[in-house]
Amino acid sequence: MASEVHKFQVGVFVIVATTIGIAALVWLGASRFFEDTEPFVTYFGESVQGLDPGASVKYRGVPAGRVGKIRIAPDGRLIQVEMDIDVEAGQALKRDPSLRASLELSGITGLRYVEIDRRFGDALNQAPTLSFEPPHQVIPSARSGIKEVQVALSELYDRVMQIDVRGLSADARAALQSATRLMSDERVDAMLTDLRSATGQATRLLQRLDTMTADVRLGPAVQNATEASAELKAVLAEWRSGQTGRQVNETLAQLQRLSESVAQVVTAMQFTLERLDRTAGSFQGLSEEVRSQPSRLLFSNPPAPRATPNGGVR
């Protein structure tokens, strides 16, 4: 008896649960018929794999409706996707001409939904041209993110295939071979050896030239000339100011001292010029000796003593 009661309870539970489930399905299905929606349509020139009727339609990430029907367009080329959009969202779609519909992935499930968002630039011109009359107001489409990646990869592949890889490889190989032959040429070693020798000779020549011109001192002559110029400027300034006879006499005395200083300067400059002349002659003779006999640059005799203007020997 208890067993029959238990079976009866189980049967009643199953019947009630089935009735509730059927009623819920009917209510959910019927509720769509009472929704206040507006029909829109869009056309895709790519595969809509993963997009099914009932998929979400989102306006900038916000649910705005559902996909109604998916079929082939009358031209047999495009895919026609009809959408039931909420009236409020539909009003926003009609006011914004920059909105474009695209297919986006829903997570990692492989399912897709329709995303409606603003586009700019080239994306505004990606919608396919229609050769027939659409049944509802059209929302132009744009390529999906996956399609954009495919197009970019295709363009990259085309550009890579246009590169003359074989020609570049041949040029690189020829350049390496030429560089190898150049570095293995004996003339390169000879040129480097000659350059090293010429550099050493030039260094030694400059050292000897510094030694020969070490005694040439133009500093005192230049200093005297500077002082004389300063005195001359002072005299000219006093002369222009219209001073008295006493000042004129003092000016004459200053001119006399100035002339003596100038004479000393001239004497010093004459002596300096003579030394420079002798130095130039020595340098010319040294250059001729080095040009004719380079070995004498290292093994030459020391220069002979030279007399100074005071009668001494240097």
Number of helices: 8
Derived structural class: alpha/beta
Percent of residues in beta strands: 5-15%
Q: Kindly, what is the distance between the CA atoms of the first and last residues, rounded to a whole number of angstroms?
A: 150 Å
Biggest sheet strand line-up = 5-6-2-3-4-1-7
Q: What would you report as the Rg, rounded to the nearest angstrom?
A: 53 Å
The arrangement of helices and strands along the chain is HEEEEHEEEHHHHHH
The residue ranges in which pLDDT falls below 50 over 5 or more consecutive positions are none
- Bin the helical content: 55-70%
Give the tally of β-strands. Answer: 7
Shape: elongated
Mean pLDDT: 75
- Largest pleated sheet: 7 strands, mixed
Please, could you describe this protein's structure?
The protein is an alpha/beta fold and 314 residues long. Among the domains are: 35-144, no CATH class; 211-299. It has helices at 2-33, 87-95, 145-162, 165-183, 186-212, 219-240, 245-292, 296-299; strands spanning 37-44, 56-59, 62-72, 79-86, 99-105, 112-118, 137-138. The chain has a 7-stranded mixed beta sheet with strand order 5-6-2-3-4-1-7. Helix 6 (219-240) runs antiparallel to helix 7.
